Amino acid sequence: MQDSVIVTRRAAVGAAFAALLPISIRAGQGQDTTQSAAPERLPYPGMVGAAKERITDYENDPFIIGIEERLRCTCGCNLDVYTCRTTDFTCGTSPEMHRQVVRLIESGSTEQEVIDAFVAQHGELVLMAPKKEGFNIVGYVLPGIAITAVGALMLWVLSRKNSVTAAEAQAAGSASIADTEMSADDAARLEAELADLE
Amino acid sequence: MTILGQLALWLALLLAAWGSVVGILGGIQQRAELIQSARRTSYALFGVLSVATIALVVALLRHDFNVQYVWAYTSRNLPTPYALSALYGGQAGSLLFWAFILTVFAAAAQWLTPRRYDHLMPYVAAVTSGVTLFFVAVVLFASNPFERMAFTPPDGNGLNPQLQNPGMVIHPPMLYLGYISITIPFAFAVAALITKRLDTGWLHAIRRWTIVSWIFLTTGIVLGMWWAYVELGWGGYWAWDPVENASFLPWLTMTAFLHSVMIQEKRGMLKKWNMILIVLSFMLSIFGTFITRSGIISSVHSFAQSSVGYFFLVFLITSGIALTWLLVTRLPDLEAESQLESMVSREASFLFNNLLLVGMAFSVLWGTMFPIISELVRGTQVTVGPPFFNQVNIPIGLGLLALTGIGPLIAWRKASTRNLKRQFTGPVVTMLIVAAVLIAVGVRDFYALMAFALSGFVVGTIGQEFIRGVGARNRLHGENYAVAFARLMARNRRRYGGYIVHLGIVVFFVAFAGNAFKKEMEASLEPGESVTLRSAFGYEYTFTHIGVSQYEQLNRFVSAASLDVTRGDEPMGIMTSEKRQYWNSFKEAQFQPSTEAAIESGLREDVYVVYAGSVEGTEEAVYSITLNPLVWWLWFGGFVMVIGGAITVWPGGGGPTRASLRRAMAGYHAQMVSGEKEEAAIAG
Is the residue at B439 inside a domain? Predict the structure, then answer.
């Protein structure tokens, strides 16, 4: 019984939303628009979860998807709005956030203005990745800096050790390692020996 | 049975405490009876925790809903394989399972380790018993699966639908096996530190264990990706979720160890580093469990928040302090036996490989913990999702891929210019050809292009290694190519098995790169209505909605939406995605309806269809359709990696090198001499 209540409420929301849209385009790219009679009602409609709304161009719009991929669904699922609304069909939050994105775009907001509106409403937590400003920059650059710094330190320490070793070897009068190359037969023999031994 | 299980847990607690104490005492005082007792405690723990585990399994299979755990994770109509998998489907059961598997490994380590490592075994028993003690204590005092309720409900709550998947039956045990088996090499490392027997001997003792751990971790991670792909319905396999990251961290450090240990075996270098890597791998496996179970970080995988987090935190801090002390006091005994002779050497390339692997582990850990750090520093919560991780880790990953190809091309000790030219020409030409072809066919995505080109480079390297090895055997032994190939692999399983693993890594990267060319759309279709979608390979797929059928099946009610799919003019058949409403034996709905994706997997691309629901309860279905290029190769790459790992670990053919054995024996002789001197001093 509860399912039917949900169906009714969602259907009402869907109808209201559809009325707001300038054009209600059925589904995405390349859709065959030839229509038959109204589709039959399922025997157990409550068993397929919350009622869905018809897909419009907005749902497949790469611009809107791009915005939604930057926003975190606030239902607690940890997913971005786009992934949540196309994956977690039990979530009522991500479809609502999607509608909000569409409304803002329709009202002429730019991508950044939409993002800012969500941040103003939910805080920075609504962004899938922190803004590249202030302390967050540390978050982005620290791994790279750490790897580069350790790599540079390794190079410095090892080259220093090498030069010390080479100087010691020269002082001891040992011959430098010649850049000798072996014959093809010797190389083949060595390969085989190594293959057996290593 | 639950009383028996509870008793077994208490007995295990006492035994584990006993084992950890007598192991240390026996080792230090060299008292044979205590050493023997520690060893036998490992077997006894295995027996006792087997009883506890069996008790829980019996309660699950008998539907004893008076046991809260059984009620919470099963129902009467739950298929038996899933009732069994409920053993690790919840927090309390999974912790018991963890402790049980640990005792299996601990007993196996005592049973299988050759006698020549007897001097390490009491400490190994002490460490494994100590870790078992911790897990049994957590089970008993924080998350007990044998807790009973005040009444007996007629049916259980059921298992989460997303866990009712064959992948979920295998994936968690595999991952646990990987996590838990790290304890054995860790125990040997601690034993080596305590005894100061820090030659390569302990490395030989753990060689198979480390590879086995790595294989289990790899299998667990890949199965987890597969489960996420087929079950979660988002058409992806890796989301940088904290729990996914937690499994990736020890994998990275173990991979680093598997490389750097070769330098210690061949050149006696990196002793401190190898010790740190093993300790770090163990700590990260515990840290991952802490993240999953403490609730400190929000994750789709997290278990319910409970007090177990505090136990893990205390364990991490105390063991961290103890291990740091042990390492610091043993630093003088971990001095390298030789030095790096050139920056252009195999050793140097392995060092940089280690730098990137550990650097990636750091960046993943940093990203995972950054929300907490941000809150501590700024008082502001932030989300660190896939965009952050991809931005930071893709360049590191590509660097690692490049080193996978570079490492084997450079000689040990020092490479000459002519040697480098000879070695690099083939792989570099392969890389350039791959890049040119891809640019010519219109590939413009920078990272994908880099991944494909570098994959070409690594394949060039591996191919060259095999061709030269086989050629050498053919020329010198007169073997035909097939026999030469087989013997090359058999005689040096470690080296060539490693190359197979590298090949698996390449396949993995190719599959990852395919993700850049994913195509997806949503469509609402009435029966008979069609929609088309063009793939990255230029195929035009047409999806025609057939209708929605509804029926009962096992412990669920199914609503199946079907599409007739064609690729160009070629029919691909009918794809059916389902909505499943699980119910208990009274047909009362459990959980929200879940979704089963329909997947048509191919070598080029997967067609991935999800039935999202119906428009106003009619047969007009809403579909989410994804064309996923190269995903099949991900599973194949995982398979290749595991096969490569199995080749390296297979008995015979790839034992310790002569240089490595010399080092172990030198250490052994040194101990003998110092022991004799001590005895002489005592006698004198």
Answer: no
CB neighbours (10 Å) of residue B468? 18
Q: Which amino acid is at A46?
A: G
Q: Is the pLDDT of residue B131 over 70?
A: yes
Q: What is the pLDDT of residues B56-100, one digit of tens each?
A: 999 999 999 999 999 999 999 999 999 999 999 899 999 999 999
Q: What percent of chain A has pLDDT over 90?
A: 45
pLDDT bracket for residue A167 (50, 70, 90): low
Q: What is the mean pLDDT of residues B496-501?
A: 95
Residues of chain A neighbouring B543 (CB-CB closer than 8 A): none
Q: Are B344 and B415 in contact (CB under 8 A)?
A: yes
Domain count of the fold of chain B: 3
Please answer whether residues B144 and B67 qualify as being in contact, where contact means their C-beta atoms are separated by less than 8 angstroms: no
Are both A153 and A71 inside the same structural domain?
A: no
Q: Tell me whether residues A181 and B356 touch, CB distance under 8 A.
A: no
Which residue, among B237, B545, B556, B616, would best test binding to A if mutated, counting the most A CBs under 10 Å from its CB?
B616
A9 touches chain B (CB under 8 A): no
Whether residue B34 has pLDDT greater than 50 = yes
Contact residues for A179 (Cβ-Cβ < 8 A; gap 6+) = B416, B417, B418
Residue A198's CB is within 10 A of a number of other CB atoms, namely 16
Domain hosting B130: range is 1-164
Four-residue CA torsion sign, B269, B270, B271, B274:
negative
CB B211 within 8 A of CB B245: no
Q: Which residue has the tokens 């050498």?
A: B472
Distance from CA of A107 to the nearest CA of B (A): 24
Q: Which two tokens stand for residue A61?
A: 């719009």
Contacts of B584 (CB under 8 A, 6+ apart): B75, B76, B77, B155, B156, B158, B555, B590
Q: Which CATH number fits the domain that encloses residue B612? A: 2.60.98
- Whose tokens are 């163990």? That residue is B282
C-alpha distance from A181 to closest chain B C-alpha (Å): 8
Q: Give the integer Cα–Cα distance in Å for B676 and A111.
A: 78
Instruction: Show residues of chain A in contact with B550, CB under 8 Å.
Output: 42-44, 47
- CB within 8 A of A116, min separation 6: which ones? none
DSSP structural state of residue A174: P
Residue B577: strand pairing partners: B561
Query: A68 and chain B: CB distance < 8 Å anywhere?
Result: no
Residue A198 lies in a domain: no
Q: Are residues B294 and B381 in the same domain?
A: yes
**Closest residue of B to A73, CA-based?**
B383
A198 lies within 8 A of chain B by CB: yes
Residues 155-184 of A with CB under 8 A from B: 155, 158-159, 161-162, 165, 177, 179-181
Which amino acid type is present at position A55? I
Which residues from chain A sit within 8 angstroms of residue B374, using beta carbons?
130, 135-136, 139
Phi and psi at residue B226, in whole multiples of 5°?
-65, -45
**Contact between residue B99 and residue B176 where contact means Cβ atoms under 8 Å apart:** no
> Are B387 and A129 a contacting pair at CB < 8 A?
yes
**Chain A partners within 8 Å of B385 (Cβ):** 72, 78, 80, 128-129
Of A124, A151, A192, the CB nearest to B352: A151
How many domains in chain A?
2
- B612 contacts A151? CB cut-off 8 A: no
**B-chain residues near A30 (CB < 8 A):** 531-533
Residue A74 included in any domain:
yes
Neighbours of B571 (CB within 10 A): 11
Which residues in chain B touch residue A126, judged by CB atoms under 8 angstroms apart?
383
Tokens of A59: 């749902």
Q: Is residue B172 part of a domain?
A: no
Which of B615, B633, B651 is the endpoint of a domain?
A: B633
Contact A142 B366 (CB under 8 A): yes
